[in-house]
Amino acid sequence: MNNTYPNAPGHNNIHTSIAAAESMEEKASSIRSRIHNLILNGHEITSEEAAIKLGIAHQPNGHGNCWKRFSELRRQGLVEDSGITRLNRSSGKEAIVWKLRKGEGTDIDYKKSKAYLRDKIASLEKEISQLREENEQLKSMKGG
Questions:
Q1: CA–CA separation, 52 vs 48, rounded Å?
Q2: How does residue 134 score in pLDDT terms, banded at 50, 70 and 90?
Q3: What is the pLDDT of residue 43?
Q4: Rounded CA gap, 10 and 68, in Å?
Q5: Could you tell me the sign of the dihedral formed by the alpha carbons of 49, 50, 53, 57, in that order?
Q6: Are the C-beta atoms of residues 64 and 26 closer than 8 Å to each other?
Q7: 17 against 119, higher pLDDT
Q8: Above 90 in pLDDT, residue 128?
Q9: Helix/strand/coil (H/E/C) assignment for every residue in 42-97
Q10: How many CB atoms neighbour CB 83 within 10 A?
């Protein structure tokens, strides 16, 4: 994959900015994938709404910087401005509602994405937890 903007976090060619961008590269890729998955599943969403849904930081100085990932997705041609705005809860300012760009992004295979794997792992962990609880209940019934 190309390691330059918009496929990787941008920087301003100063060594500290370059280091910061490089340190975010893997995380930014994962966040872009998760945001894109939301939009592929029919969500038209502001960057703040996506941050809340995904449990990541929206604003700068937070890990993830969700709003920056939308800029990268737009430059990649995967999302576009829907022409609708909504108020951000945190700032009270108007925010773009992003949507899937027509004819773009539909070739992504969700089942090969990190978002799918995270969802699958979470589902399996929940199932394991439930099975452990059932096992403990059965043990206590036999022993008690």
A1: 6
A2: very high
A3: 83
A4: 9
A5: negative
A6: no
A7: 119
A8: yes
A9: CCCECHHHHHHHHCCCCCCCCCCCHHHHHHHHHHCCCEEEEEEEEECCCCCCEEEE
A10: 8
> Is a pLDDT exceeding 50 seen at residue 89?
yes
Distance of CA 77 to the CA centre of its chain: 17
Per-residue pLDDT at 63: 41
Q: Residue 101 has what DSSP assignment? A: P
By CB atoms closer than 10 A (0-12, 13-18, 19+), residue 66 is buried
Q: For residue 26, what is the enclosing H or E element? A: helix 15-40
Q: Is residue 131 classed exposed, middle or buried when 0-12, 13-18 and 19+ CB atoms within 10 A define those classes?
A: exposed
Tokens of 52: 């809340």
- Mean per-residue pLDDT of the chain: 76
Q: Of the candidates 98, 62, 64, 60, which has an alpha carbon nearest to the alpha carbon of residue 82?
A: 98
Distance CA 90, CA 1 (A): 35
What pLDDT shows up at residue 82?
92
